[in-house]
Amino acid sequence: MKRLPFASGLLLPSAVSRVACVLVLVGALWTAIHWAIVLP
Fold this sequence. Notes:
Blueprint: H1 6-11, H2 14-38
């Protein structure tokens, strides 16, 4: 959770940044699975 830049850590509350991280991870996983199914 400490990979965000220091400025972003100050601007965003920890809860908001945590939710954003989860959404990004879910989106990345969904995209990877989607392309893994579509491309072949």
